Amino acid sequence: MKKINASYFHFLHTICHGLRGMASPSLLNDANALLYSAKSFAAAMLAYYIALSIGLERPSWAIITVYIVSQTSVGASLSRSLYRLVGTVIGAGMTVLIVPTFVNSPVFCSVILTGWITFCLYLSLLERTPRAYGFVLAGYTASLIGFPAVSDPGAIFDIAITRVQEIMIGIFCAALIHRYVLPARISGQFNSKLSQTLLAARQRIADTLAGKPDAVSGPLHMALALQFLQGISHHIPYDFAFSVPVRQARKRLHDRLARLVIVNCELRDRLALIATIPFDVQILMDDVEVWLACKDEGKFKSEGEALKKRSEKLLQRYVVHELTFGAALHVSFMRYLTEAIVLVQQCYRLSDAIHHANQMPAHSEMNDVKGYVFHRDPLTAARTALGAFTIILSGCMVWIFSAWPDGGTAVSILGVCCTLFGSFDTPAPHIVKYIIGSLWGVVISLIYSFVLLPQVSDFIVLVVVLAPVYLLAGSLQARPPTTFMAMGITLTLPILCELGAHYSGDFAVAVNTSIALFSATGFAVFSMGFLQTVQADAAIKRLLKLCQRDINRSVKGVLNTDETLWINLMIDRAALILPRLPRSGQSSEQALNHLLHTLRIGLCVMRLRRWDAHADKEIKEVLTCLTHSTDINTLLERIVSLTERSLSVADELSRHHVNQLVDLYCALSTQEMEHADDQ
Question: Which of 531, 563, 579 is the last residue of a domain?
C-alpha cells in the first residue's frame, strides 16, 4: 500500500480552515448550539441510566441537574458543577437541621426556612462572581427539599440523602461529558475577546491623539469588555491547568487596561486645553498613531521601544523649562503620552504571557496586582433579600392556611424563582419566558406521559423517543435569548413524566403539579415585579451617590484606598451603569461623565492625601472645596496659583504637587466645559 504524502494532510487542514473561515457566525453558533445539545442529552441519559441502575427513587433529578449545570464551555460547566455540588450539600444539610426541629410549628418553620433561603440570596448578591451560584444552590436546594418534605418530616434525612445522590450523579455525568467529549475551551473565547479589547484600546488612544470627536466618557465603554473578560477569566482554571503566574498576569492585565482608560481621558483633556502643540511633540504624536495602527508584531514591539525612549527624552527636555502653568500642562501631556506607550507595551507583554503559560514578562511587578474589583452594596442586597423573604413567606402562609395538598410544591418553586431571578433588575420578563417554556413543557409532557411512554419498554427506545424534544430544547438553551424558555421545557419534562424505573403516568398528579407550577411562577411574576424590580434611574443614582460618598470620605481622610483599587472599582461601577442607561430616562453621557469626573477627582484627592503630613494649608482647603458647592472658576484660579508657586521650588514634594494639581485642574475644567455645554 502506498504511503500517504504528508502534504495531503496539510492540504486537507488548509481546506478545513478555509471552510471554517467562510462559515457565517450564525452558522457557527448553530453548530455550537447543536453540539452542546447533543452532549447535554448524552450526559442526561447517562445520568438517568446510572440513577436507574442503582435504584434511586427519582432518577429524573439527575436529568434536571445535567441541564442546570451544563454550559457551552468546559470551564464554565466544571466550575458550575463544583459550585452546585457544594451548594447542594450545604442546602440539604440545613434542610435536615431545620425541618425536623421546627416542623411542629408550621409558621415558625416557614420563617426559618425562608430566612435561610433569603440569607443565601443575600450572600450571592454580595459575591457577584460565578461562586455566587454556590450560595444560590444552598438556598434553593433547601426550598426544593424542605417545603415538600414538611408533610413527612421523619423521612427528611432519607429524602435529602437521595436528592444529593441524584444531583451528584447528574453533576458527575455533565462534568464527564463536557470535559472529555469534544470539549469547548473557554480559553479560546477569552483570547479572542482579549485581542479585540487590546485593538479597541489602541484605536481609542490613536483617535484621541488624532483629535477625532468622541464623548468625554467614551473610553469608559471599555468597562463592559473588562467585565466580560473577568467573567470568562473566572472559569479558565477549570478549562485546563494554568499556573499561578498566569492568573497573576490576567489580574495585572486588567490593572493596565483600566489604567489605560484613565490615561486616554487625561490625554484628551490636555489636548483640548493646550492652545498650540509644539512641533516635536506633534511629530511624536503622529508616529505614535502610526505605531498604534501597525499590524506587524515584530515591528510593533521594536518601534514601541524606540517611541518610548523618544517620549522620555522629550519629557525630560520639557521638565527643565517647566516654569509656568502652561509649561506644566505640556509636561503633564508628555507624561501621560509616555505612560500610554508603556501601558500598551505592558498589555501586549502580559497578553503573550497569558497565551504562553511558561512565559512571563521579566520586569512585571506581580506583588501589587489588584485585578478586577467588584462593587458590593450590602443595602441593595438586603433590600432584594427582604423582598424575597416577604414573597416566599406570603406563599407559605397561603399554603398553611388553605391546607393546599400541593402547596409545598408551589412554595418550593416560588423559592427557586426568588433565588434564581433575584439578581436581575427586572426579573418578571425572565420568569415570563420560563413560564412560556413551561407551558410547552406541560403539553409535551402530557403527550409523552399518556401517548408515547406507555408504548416504551426498553431504555434504548426511551432515549430515541426523548431525543427530538431534548435536542431541540438543548439547542435553544445554548442561545441566551431563549435560555429560560428552553429551561422551562428541559426541567418540566422529567418531573411531569415521572421518569422512574417503571411507567407511572397519573393524569391527576400531572395536572395538580402543573397547577402548582403555574400558580408559583405566576405569583412570582406579580410579586417580584412589584417588590424586586429595580428602576434603572434609581440604580444609577444609587451608584453615583456612592461614588460621591467615597470622594467625601477620601477628602476627610476616612477612606484610605489604593489608587489601582479605586480605578478598578470605578470601572466595575461603570460596567454596572452602562447596561442600565438604555432603560434610564437621564442622559447617558451625563451619567458617565459624572462617574468619570468622580473617578478622576478621587485619584487626585488620594494622591494629594498621600502627602498629607507635608501638605500646606491651601492644598487642604482646595480639597475641602471639592466637597462643597463653590465657584469652579475661582477654584481653578486658585489651583493655577498653587501650581506656579510649587514650580518655583525644585524638590520631590513640589514636583508631586504640580503633577496632581494639573490633574485636578484638567478634571475640573472638563466638568466646567460640560456644564457650559448642557446650558
Answer: 531
